[in-house]
Amino acid sequence: MTNLTRSTIDQADVDRFSAMADEWWDPTGKFKPLHKFNPVRLSYIKQKVCENFDLDPNQSEPFRNLTILDIGCGGGLLCEPMARLGAKITGVDASSTNIEIARIHARQTSLDIDYRVSTSESLNEHGETFDCILNMEVVEHVADVDLFINSCANMVKPGGLMFVATINRTFKANALAIFMAENILKWLPKGTHQFEKLVRPEELEVPLNNSGMQIIDRTGVFYNPITDKWDYSKDMDVNYMILARR
Fold first, then answer.
1. Is the pTM here over 0.85, yes or no?
2. C-alpha neighbours within 13 Å on the C-beta side of residue 13
3. Which residue, among 236, 232, 223, 237, has the nearest Cα to 171 in the 3D structure?
4. Which of 82, 147, 184, 199 suits a disulfide with 87, CB 3.0-4.6 Å?
5. Helix (H) or strand (E) holding 204
């Protein structure tokens, strides 16, 4: 079976997020957890990109001249900070509704972002390449993880980076990231995550390695209810991030 006959699109998940699209930029709405999560993942991305490309993080636009792809960009919560850091940012999502919301918000904030309705396998087939690829909270929503990882990895330029953030498929994650978050704390609408679609670190690392990527960092991420903030952790049993370099 070739990549042309396979697809990363899970239409049910695309429809689910499209139905909530008008709330992407409401920090108190259905995407409140992502707004809370944004500072820690932005900090991680900025630190690792500056280290890898020997950039000065204290500059106003340290990412200038870097090409970055945010795949599964939703309403653009990561694209806009990347643009402000100076990157030439491309935001891609399978949902046309999400992309329209992202485009409207970018116009309102006067940011130049290349938003497209597409998939990783389509971009790869057309020979697109980038210095960095962001796969943040998306891999658990795709239909074919290996195809997704492989097609993304193929688009990373030599010396470039790929970030993956997702939820581990563990009992603890099922209890905290699904049952607690969706049923008790009401952080997320019910059905946002399905346990069987969560992805273990090794299920990412194998296709990354097979695609010529080297794993250079791993970190867990946890929510502290006392400080109401997310931070790094050695525990990768629930939320985690993986960084790979070509």
1. yes
2. 19
3. 237
4. 82
5. helix 201-210
* Count of residues making up the chain: 246
12-16's contacts with Cβ under 8 Å and 24+ in sequence apart are 13/141, 14/94, 14/95, 16/189, 16/191, 16/192
Read off the tokens for 189: 């609408």
Residue pair 217/243 in contact by the 8 Å Cβ criterion: yes
DSSP classification of residue 72: T
Pull the structure tokens for residue 45: 């991305």
Of the candidates 41, 49, 93, 88, the residue with the CA atom closest to the CA atom of residue 71: 93
Q: List Cα–Cα distances, 128 to 7, 112, 131, 154, in angstroms.
A: 17, 19, 11, 9
Give the mean model confidence (pLDDT) for residues 159-165. Answer: 98
Query: 206-210 long-range CB contacts below 8 Å, 24 or more apart?
Result: 207/145, 207/146, 207/149, 207/150, 207/153, 208/149, 208/153, 208/162, 208/164, 208/242, 208/244, 210/150
DSSP of 43-71: HHHHHHHHHHHT--TTSS-TTTT-EEEEE
Q: What is the pLDDT of residue 2?
A: 46
Query: Which string of DSSP letters, residue by residue, matches 148-162?
Result: HHHHHHTTEEEEEEE
Start-to-end Cα distance in the chain: 26
Q: What does the alpha-carbon distance between residue 99 and residue 117 come to, in Å, rounded to a whole number? A: 7
